[in-house]
Amino acid sequence: MSHYYDQTQTSKSNPKTFTFNYRNLEFVFKTDSGVFSKNYIDFGSYLLIDNYEPNSLEGPVLDMCSGYGVIGIVLKKLYNLDVYQTDINLRCYNLNKDNLLLNNVETKLFTGNLYENLPECKFKDILVNPPIRAGKEIVFAIYKGAYERLMERGALYVVIQKKQGAPSTIKCLENLFSKVSIINHKKGYYIIKAERL
User: Fold this and answer.
1) Which helix (H) or strand (E) holds 172?
2) Which residues of 52-77 are buried (b: 16+ CB within 10 A; e: fewer)?
3) Half-sphere exposure of 194 (CA within 13 A, CB side)
């Protein structure tokens, strides 16, 4: 049976929508079976959005493993950033396209494994709620790729639960980045900021 990090989903489509109210804005998201957190925005993604502060660099922001689009769409509407989004899951990609229209925002949307189909540009920030079910090899490849795709003084923001590997994530990031900080810790979730200085 497929899971949300597979390119093609075998589960029967069962689309639904939900609304998400945040900072006096209302968002509408279409979801489906075979995607991560299909019923409502997960607490980790919410915490990541709530703790993100755009830096002053000029450049785009990447919503990595974007799913059906929550993080990138909310950040676009909040801060009017130049947002790129990518996910391997084709069902997510198509839902993300629908959700951009539903929320009247524009991002640059891609699909593919890791960073493979993104343009050769550098990002000022990258945000990721990593696909734990894809395995540690994929998750660590996301971190390594983020280091390579960030501008100097750019930052990677990660949300991860302690029980799902926060300690090993921190160790991996400390081997890659100049500065790694835990900027929030709530209900077992860590928000980690790794800066390329």
Assistant:
1) helix 166-176
2) beeeebebbbbbbbbbbbbbbbbbbb
3) 26
Measure the CA–CA gap between 195 and 154, rounded to whole angstroms: 6
Per-residue DSSP letter, 53:
-
pTM over 0.90: yes
Q: Three-state SS for 37?
A: coil
Question: What span, in angstroms and rounded, lies between the C-alpha atoms of 138 and 191?
Answer: 19
User: Would you state the structure tokens that stand for residue 126, as one six-digit string?
Assistant: 């990258």
Q: For residue range 45-77, what is the model confidence (pLDDT) as tens digits?
A: 999 999 999 999 999 999 999 999 999 999 999
Give the list of residues 6+ apart from residue 107 with CB closer than 8 angstroms, or none: 63, 69, 72, 73, 76, 83, 84, 85, 100
Q: How far is CA 92 from the centre of its chain?
A: 12
List, in sequence order, the alpha helices (H) in 37-154: 43-51, 70-79, 90-102, 136-149
Dihedral sign computed on CA atoms, order 168, 171, 172, 178: positive
